[in-house]
Amino acid sequence: MKAWLENNRHSLGLAVKRMADAPIASLFSILVIGIALSLPAGSYVALDNAGRLAGKLSPKPEISLFLKADLSQDQGRRLTQRIASLTDVAKARFVSRDEGLKHLQDAGLSNLTAGLDENPLPDVIIVTAKDSDAKAMERLAEQLNTLPGIDHLLMDSDWVRRLAALLDFGRDLVWLLAGLLGLALAAITGNTIRLQIYAAREEIEVSRLIGATNRFIRRPFLYFGVLQGLLGGLLGWLLTSGGIYVLEGSLARLALAWNGRIDLHGLGPAEGAILLGLSALLGLIGAFLAVSHSLRRML
Q1: Predicted pLDDT of residue 157
Q2: What is the CA 106 to chain-centroid distance, rounded?
């Protein structure tokens, strides 16, 4: 165990030394990796903030239940209480036909309603669902439509369906971008390692002559790939946080002009740790593939 720890300590020190011996090349590689990682990370943050903002600005979708004409207002109010007691309903409000006519008059349509002999509007129950998801709204609408006294219903969930579809498309796009840039990160690391192996070719051949195994030769390059990926991930995290800091002021002024407030959220500790772990893993994969291929060619 002690020998294994000593070998890994030596390999890590050798990886750090190789990185320090070529500071400009290492810096540029880390910079490219950081920028590549900041693109999907920034897209994820933008999508997450867009979802939060939409949830704050958009009203909860409602279902309007138009009652049958032969249903009395007392029956309508009792039906409203029954609907309000359902588990999926957050609130149910009864709007009488007289109240609906008054709303039309207050909206500036008094000239239109003045010539009517009687009120043509039905009593309405406005239902607010607990879950604004489009599928949950449809299930609730199907349940409400089976209740007695309901003539027809109008579901205000089109915007929910469009928003959900747009956010789903954005998530798929972020995952696609992350996958492509992850491959690019592994390729960048592999190319850097390949150049290092070429520069250390004579050292590797001497090590083999004195009995060094491929595992021993490979280990410092793997640590180099992990370190490069880890530093690139850290830079990507910092670039994403810096972008949020730059945009936060201008977005706050924009929200203030609309009498609102926008609070941007960046990558949290858990999300940042996932970013660092993935960047280190991709660096390890790129280094392993490059070293294995180069060592086979050197046989």
Answers
A1: 59
A2: 43
Residues 241 and 176 in one domain: yes
Q: Do 145 and 252 reside in the same domain of the chain?
A: no
Q: Order of strands across the sheet with 89-95?
A: 89-95, 124-129, 62-67, 150-155
Structure tokens at 178: 């992350």
Q: What is the pTM of this model?
A: 0.63
| 223 and 287 in a common domain | yes
State whether 94 and 205 are in the same domain: no
Answer yes or no: do 93 and 139 share one domain: yes
List, in sequence order, every residue forming a beta bridge with 126; answer none if it has no partner.
64, 93
Q: Which tokens go with 176?
A: 């696609």
Q: Which of 156, 171, 189 is the last residue of a domain?
A: 156
* pLDDT tens digits, one per residue of 14-61: 777 777 777 888 788 888 888 888 888 888 887 777 766 655 555 567
26, 11: one domain: yes
Using CA atoms, how far residue 167 sits from 77, 135, 277, in Å, is 38, 15, 26
* CB of 177 closer than 8 Å to CB of 43: yes
Tell me: do 26 and 147 sit in the same domain.
no
pLDDT at 258 > cutoff 60? no
Distances (CA, A) of 151 to 69, 93, 125, 171, 228: 8, 17, 11, 39, 66
Terminal Cα-to-Cα distance of the chain (whole angstroms): 30
DSSP classification of residue 200:
T
Q: Which helix (H) or strand (E) is 207 found in, with range? A: helix 201-209
Are residue 50 and residue 169 in the same domain, yes or no?
yes
**Residue 207 sits in which domain range?**
2-57+162-297
The CA distance from 183 to 86, in Å, is 50
Q: Give the list of residues 6+ apart from residue 125 with CB closer than 8 angstroms, or none.
A: 64, 65, 67, 76, 79, 80, 83, 92, 93, 94, 95
- 68: confidence class by pLDDT, cuts 50, 70, 90: confident
Distance CA 186, CA 276 (A): 14
